[in-house]
Amino acid sequence: MSLSHGQLASLRQHCSGEILSDPAQCLAYGYDNSKQQAMPDAVVLAEDTAGIAALATWCSHNKVPLTVRGAGTNTVGATVPLRGGVVLSLERMNRILEFSPENQYLRCQAGTRNGDVQARAEQAGLFWPPDPTSSGFSSVGGNLGCNAGGPRAVKYGTCRDNVLGLTAVTGDGRIIETGCRTTKGVVGYDLTRLLVGSEGSLAIITEATLLLRALAPARWSIRAAYATVEGAAQAVSAMMAQPVRPCALEFMDATAVRLVRENAGIALPAQTQALLLIDIDGDSARLAEDAAALQRSGARPDCLDWLVAEDPVRSKDLWQARKALSPCLRALAPQKINEDVVVPVSRLPELMQRLQAISERFALPIVNFGHAGNGNVHVNILADFSKPAEREAVAPCLDAVFDCVLELGGTLSGEHGVGLAKRDFVAREVSPDALDLMHQIKRVFDPAGILNPDKTLPSI
Ligand SMILES: Cc1cc2nc3c(=O)[nH]c(=O)nc-3n(C[C@H](O)[C@H](O)[C@H](O)COP(=O)(O)OP(=O)(O)OC[C@H]3O[C@@H](n4cnc5c(N)ncnc54)[C@H](O)[C@@H]3O)c2cc1C
Predict the structure, then answer these.
(1) Is 146 in the pocket of ligand 1 (CB under 6 A)?
(2) Among residues 455, 202, 233, which one has the least CA distance to residue 353?
């Protein structure tokens, strides 16, 4: 759709905050990290909840699509305004409103950067568990919109596990408060956890009360090298079945290992086919015992190397293999289809075997790495679209990956979300009756269907 001059004038009359309509300025708000793009008719830089409520009321009344955006770092096209309309940016709503170390919570506006929350919490020896690698620039609203996680999720959970309450604006402009400020509370339905992960399709989160945790006094790192991918996957499953819970448990498969070895000069035992990067935190007096327990559970005949770092400098060295991976991947193939599937941890060995078979069947390299402690694997299908055979193989290859994940009892996305990219696959995982209820819920929150249309749920 395209806003007429009259509609733009009416928008300016009814809504507060700066309103951009110059295409040169709007362009920057039409794309995200999915590399998809569409042009908004206008961008509103909101300043408060009341202004957002007025905007939603206006958009609802005029049937104008309204797409809320944090920093636009999502990878699934979740902020691309496919039908034009208004993009709402919360970049100016970035204030920390209340910090209560004694009750371990922090209340902030939704445009606050994750990194700013962490910096403030750290001053009191606390942290907010969601730690996407984008934390330096991604926003709390965007983190909550996608239910973001990160390496720490294996021990401390994702956004959904670490939010106490929200202020939000529904699609028809109602301001609602959800949840409470305590760690227990069962009054009413749990709208907080419904809105988290809803990708701006049910309501616009304007403020959030985040649950903070105490920073552990000490943290050690471990790098374990395995001679087989299956061996490493079995070790993950064994580690997650014993009482010591790592605060990060990352996995890299054989291609990922080869890449960092060849391109980043990471020194590893010659036969290494898979790596595990593990962090443990807690009382320094206990960590040696915890590391030993993990080593016992991860011990296998094909474990080639088990290095432990007790200080931050050495720890950074061990994690270098994982940090070097993303830049190396870009060098391998021009196109990279990055999925973030999840399977129950005990099915990881089977997933790895089947991904290898899928890669061979479609003659496309697949590089796998990710948050294995949660069974969350970033499956990267690499292709060169200038070669027709590779271009055509991508869609059936992706289909095969998704089929395999669902057969193993998994889910299609662990943290990146659905957005546009996976919307058409949702019906493979969610039953028709459940989908029908979800569409009904959408209509209750957003009767005119203006909030982030075309995303998250397949159309009916
Ligand atoms: C280098 C890099 C590393 C990354 N690493 C990780 C990782 O480790 N783990 C991970 O989970 N993700 C990761 N991501 C993906 C992305 O950073 C996260 O999904 C992040 O949470 C998005 O935040 P954002 O502020 O950029 O949100 P956006 O991309 O702007 O928006 C994301 C979704 O949230 C909705 N939304 C935004 N603000 C609000 C609001 N106020 N109310 C309601 N809905 C809202 C949007 O409509 C959209 O659907 C990474 C991305 C990059 C580029």
Answers:
(1) yes
(2) 233
